[in-house]
Specification:
The chain is an alpha/beta fold and about 240 residues long. It is built from 7 helices and 12 strands. α1 crosses α7, α2 crosses α3 and α5 crosses α6. It binds NADP nicotinamide-adenine-dinucleotide phosphate. The site of NADP nicotinamide-adenine-dinucleotide phosphate has 24 residues, from β2, α2 and α3.
């Protein structure tokens, strides 16, 4: 009989894979922020929407009798990770971060690493830009009237947006061939260092398109694993302790 009750902070492939791997072993509640209108639904129980800051999350953990939290949010969802660290510390619930490894530059790549989306916008030279940073921070590029943008996102962006903007609504997985068709004729690819499937980076390498790579934000020092298997092993350990 499943015993441990686990909150999975999700919104990622890893979050869904973990929820599926927990089925029959642990009780899970997956939490989504509610940013996308048609999210892919994970296995187990689901809740949608913010908690109302670290205090709201702490209240939720107590009220729902959560015994372990796995933060499987996107590497750039740093606010949620900070809140998870604060709330679990306050309530005394163990927290694990499940985060896919970042990308590493390969021979043939031409990358420029920058610290923020704003720094990526500042680093652009005039030209055609393939923008894959998601819709939320597209406003950072609005002042670059000397660039034209092809921006890909799951949901349509909202203003402020660059004037010279073409939007492509799409969700991965993507193929190297498809990415090469989109990148042909582009002067630069702008991406966050999300890690995971890297078809756009392979395509950029093969077409010699330079890449502006936005570094991950810092997160609190929390036990971290990179695979669903390691997260399950951690949960098994916690399960023995409760
Ligand atoms: P964020 O900036 O770190 O979080 C902002 C607020 O959104 C949080 O304080 C929290 O609200 C709420 N929130 C975030 N993730 C949540 C979750 N899984 N469940 C419930 N509430 C959540 O987050 P974000 O960058 O906007 O990302 C939002 C969601 O999209 C995350 O689930 C993330 O995994 C996913 N995502 C993000 C990116 C990205 O590039 N940032 C890319 C792909 C997917 P309260 O303070 O009210 O609790």
């Amino acid at each position: 009989m499943p015993r441990l009750k686990v909150l999975i902070l999700g919104g990622t492939t890893e979050g869904r894979e973990l929820a599926a791997a927990c089925a029959g072993r642990f009780m899970t509640v997956s939490s989504l922020a509610g940013r996308t209108g048609s999210p892919i639904i994970p296995a187990g129980e689901l809740r949608i929407g913010g908690f109302g800051g670290p205090g709201g999350l702490a209240d939720y953990l107590r009220a729902s009798r959560i015994q372990a939290v796995v933060d499987a949010t996107h590497p750039f969802a740093a606010t949620m990770t900070e809140h998870a660290a604060a709330a679990t510390a306050a309530v005394g619930v163990p927290l694990l971060v499940l985060r896919r490894p970042g990308w590493i530059e390969q021979p043939g790549d031409d990358w420029q690493r920058v610290a923020t989306v704003g720094a990526a916008a500042a680093a652009l030279k005039p030209g055609r830009v393939f923008l894959t940073t998601g819709r939320q921070e597209i406003g950072a590029f609005a002042g670059r009237y000397d660039c034209s943008f092809l921006a890909r996102s799951v949901e349509p962006p909202v203003p402020p947006m660059p004037l010279n903007l073409e939007v492509l609504i799409d969700r991965g997985p993507f193929t190297v061939g498809g990415e090469k068709r989109l990148l042909a004729g582009m002067d630069v690819l702008v991406t966050k260092d999300s890690g995971g499937a890297d078809a756009k980076l392979v395509a950029a390498r093969e077409l010699s398109v330079p890449v502006i790579m936005i570094d991950r934000p810092a997160i609190p020092a929390v036990p971290t694993v990179a695979s669903v298997g390691d997260a399950i092993r951690w949960l098994n350990t916690i399960d023995l302790l409760v």
